[in-house]
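Troubleshooting log. The previous structure file for this entry was overwritten by mistake, so regenerating from the original sequence record. Sequence copied from the archived sheet and checked twice against the printout by T.R.
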Amino acid sequence: MSVSPDAIKNFSEDAVFNYFNNFSDNSINQGPIGAHNTCNFNPLDKLVELFEENKKLYERLLQSEREKVELLKGK
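Regenerated output below.
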């Protein structure tokens, strides 16, 4: 890739940042794959759901360990 002398002379960091801040590439939204690239759930809701699931599993494991301790005490 070549850079013209004018591009070097007129270089400005502000212009570069402005370009990338306003850059919009819609190529990912083209075709059958990109068309389905939308998130239709709230990621925080999923995270909370996973924490609740993990909490329930931990409580079941804890109860199982308590039952094991009671069985071992009985022997």
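The CA atoms of residues 45 and 51 lie 10 Å apart. Archived copy saved in two places this time.
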